[in-house]
Amino acid sequence: MSDLTRVWLTVDTDDLRHVPSNQGHPTRSKPDKDLPVLSDTFRNGMIEFKEWLNTHDRAVTLFVIADQCESEDFVQMICDICESFGKRITIGCHGLHHRSWSAWPEDAEGFSRDLKAAATVLEQEFPQHFRRWFRAPAGYLASWMIPVLIEQEFVVDSSVNPSWLVNKKYGKGESWKTVLAAVKQTSLIERPWKTRLSLPTCGPAQHITGLRWNARRAWANLSEALDASEIDSVEDSSNELDTIYWHILDHARKDGGWIPPIKGL
Ligand SMILES: [Zn+2]
Predict the structure, then answer these.
(1) Is this model's pTM higher than 0.90 or not?
(2) Which residue, 118, 137, 177, 233, could crosslink 98 as a Cys pair with Cβ 3.0–4.6 Å?
């Protein structure tokens, strides 16, 4: 039996050029300049994502990287999703260029500039759907990023993967626990990602050998996802939620046949 904690469905819009092995990370990135602003894989993923949205009535938040809006086609695709599904769609911020700020030395000024530029673009392109909700590129926050988010009136962060498996990513003296504790001292609401048996279940964990069995079990036992009338509860800290995420690019897997393995959807 699943518990009654409701589920927040979130999807990151990273394109092929945004993955840390290509850009944004101090040690992992080897940029390939030939990757397009908007890839065909992404286009295919969006087509399949829309198909999937047509099969149910739940709300979905897209975490968008603002530099994707350099492509008019990208903006068109997101606007089409917004028009087709209305209040079911909300848009959060996944950075300006997907720079992994937490992996670099502390730079509050640089992050602040980036965040402001990103929020400006997203607000301008998707005014009815944009919310000041943040997901850190590469999926983890450093504590010094928290005051910057608050200063720029972000109300929700969803960047904490509460698993021992990711602690090596954090800077000296930090872990997901210290970051979560630091957020809890502030007005910012943290929506950590769903784990099972203390292991990640979101994003790549759905596909990695050794993690995917557990990850799929977790998603197969979720309770009901939020609908459009309930999406504001993301901003209500008295509401516990199970937050899960995957990528638009995942919808291009298996020749477009992949769908998130969520119970009831
Ligand atoms: Zn990302």
Answers:
(1) yes
(2) 137
